[in-house]
Amino acid sequence: MPQNWRGPLPWLAMAFAANVAAIGAAAYLLGQGVVDREELRALAMIAVAGSALMFVLAWKIIDFAVMRGIKRMAAEIRAIAHGGNRSDIEAARYPLLAPLPDSVNQIIAKMIQARQELAEGLKSATGKAEENSNRLAAILNDLHEGVVVCNLRHQIVLYNSVVMDMLAGIGPVGLGRSLFETVTREAVTHMLEVLTHRPEMGSRGTPFLASAADGTTLLQARMSLIRTNDGDATGYVITMVDASPQVAALSRRDALLREVAEGLQSPLIRLRIAANNPVIVEREAANIEAAIKRVTDGYQRALSGWWPMADLHSADLFAFVAQRFDQSTVKVTVTGLPVWLHADSHSLALTMEAMIRQISDRFNLAEVDLAAAEDEAGSWVEIGWAGSTAAKPALDGWLAQPLHSLGGMRVRDVLDHHAGAEIVQEHRAGRSWLRLPMRKGIEQHYQAKVAALPTRPEFYDMALLDAARDIGEKGRQPLRSLTFIVFDTETTGLQPSQGDQIVQIGAVRIVNGRILSGESFNRIVNPGRVIPPESIKFHGITDDMVKDKPPLGVVLPQFKAFAADAVLVAHNAAFDLKFLRMNERQFGLKFDNPVLDTMMLSNYLDGPETGHSLDAICDRLGISITDRHTALGDAIVTAAVLLNQIDALESRGITTLEQVVKELDMNMALHERQRAF
């Protein structure tokens, strides 16, 4: 019998065809008059019953021979797929499903082959991974430094034997355990926040000091972030050594050197007074003092060379210090321009916190200022308050304050290690300032800037400034009593009328002649369009940086609330105002604040012949620029320029906003006339 005739289905098909043929024949006979209608009805009933019987029989056969067969085959396939011992299914058990079983067996053979190749690959990769793991373990255990790797939940995922030896006596060390069971939390979280905020600082690991959880061990550590290819941090690596012996030895030598220097000071004074030959005595005393100073300076250089320091932004440092007073009755206000320092962020933040608490307790203060500055010789940070300066015994007591999270080191020790220069107190503008000398840092950039960049068009649309001349009551107030919001924008390009949009808004507040750099506004904006490469070279903001940021419809109302009714200030203000004003109607806002333009003020004060770019003005005024071509960085620098310009205006007898606006309007009219000739 042919292969195609095996099984019940062909026979059922033949029976069905015969039944149909019988019905057709009966209809033909009826038409020829051979049979009457009653006979035909009986034949039809028999045909219908036969058809129903055949359909039922066919369904039962299909259910038994096909559907159940498919289910049995599926079960066998699942068993093979889940690692069963069989390598194929028996095609002879499923004659009605041919040639499906043969095709399934081919797929199974390919799957088993791929499984074998995968197993061999995994075995090889596992062997290499174990080999690399053993090599890594051998390297880590051979290191003299402790190495610990943690995820962002601060759980230990890897450590070496040095860490175990160093910290096991303090608390439990193990995979999955919290690092904070053995190391103080604040030092680690502080550095993690620093590196997250300033990723450029962690490329080679950032040094810092930490203390063991029980305070018995001081750790000299270095942290690096673990990042994905997209730049997202997934964890961090800390290398550490026990610095307690070195610190103890340095402290003993420091105390001995101080004792020698202080012990010789009085005899030298008496020697000058009592000697018969004052010229010789004066000369020799000066030689002894110079020798002691050389030893002291050399010792301080040795201390600072050992101390774990990195370049850091003073604004970041002050923000960390201010955060430590969030729940305190003392308000810490950050003022002035930021500078770059070379310091240990953690120990310096603890030191400044201790000093502020001592000062506020001593003078019962509700507010303390923080500021930073620099000159050619170095940098410094300042703590300011309203009232008198501190007496020397009080200052000595503050410097002797122990820092328990740094193994009992004193405030003086940390400051000596940072610069070793004398702390200065001074009184200016009705406030006392305590100046803590620091070393100058080098500005760090996440993305290198291009030297030659396009500049914004000057005097972009003067009609924009005309709309901000309704100054009202503010016009008669002294300039120094006004609140200014100094702002800057970064954009996708220089043509707002052709679709360019804001990608960043930065602003800082000036109140009573003080730059409150701690009260700032800094938002990156999703512009809803691609940022051109030439603009990225200018401000460093990429499409990846803005993809998860809010649109301008969210940020612009936030900026309006921040600005409130203060006087808006910008450099080349008409350009920035154009980007604000063209979105007013869409978002239901109105920027009708009074506006000052530092570029126009520069033109008025210094004449049109001099340069009026922000860089040129800062160069003339000796203002250091940090974070150039970032909205907030440029806004803070522009704020410093404005305060210098207010000094110059007051020297000309111009003391109110109304007078400034009048002079600028006259100056611009003359400028436009000159351009016509």
Automatic annotation (TrEMBL):
Tell me which SMART domains the record gives: EXOIII
What's the domain of life for this entry?
Bacteria
Catalysed reaction equations from the record: DNA(n) + a 2'-deoxyribonucleoside 5'-triphosphate = DNA(n+1) + diphosphate
Where the record annotates domain Exonuclease, the positions are 483-651
Enzyme class, first EC level, given as a word: transferase
Per the UniProt entry, the Enzyme Commission number(s) are 2.7.7.7
List the InterPro entries hit by this protein, alphabetically: DnaQ (IPR006054), PAS-like_dom_sf (IPR035965), Ribonucl_H (IPR013520), RNaseH-like_sf (IPR012337), RNaseH_sf (IPR036397)
In the record, what terms sit under GO molecular function? 3'-5' exonuclease activity; DNA binding; DNA-directed DNA polymerase activity
**Pfam families given in the database record:** RNase_T
Q: What keywords sit in the KW lines?
A: Exonuclease, Hydrolase, Membrane, Nuclease, Transmembrane, Transmembrane helix
Bilayer-spanning residue ranges: 12-30, 42-62
Q: Which residues form the signal peptide?
A: none
State the coiled-coil residue ranges.
none
> What does this gene product do?
DNA polymerase III is a complex, multichain enzyme responsible for most of the replicative synthesis in bacteria. The epsilon subunit contain the editing function and is a proofreading 3'-5' exonuclease.
- Subunit and interaction comment: DNA polymerase III contains a core (composed of alpha, epsilon and theta chains) that associates with a tau subunit. This core dimerizes to form the POLIII' complex. PolIII' associates with the gamma complex (composed of gamma, delta, delta', psi and chi chains) and with the beta chain to form the complete DNA polymerase III complex.
Q: What is this protein called?
A: DNA-directed DNA polymerase
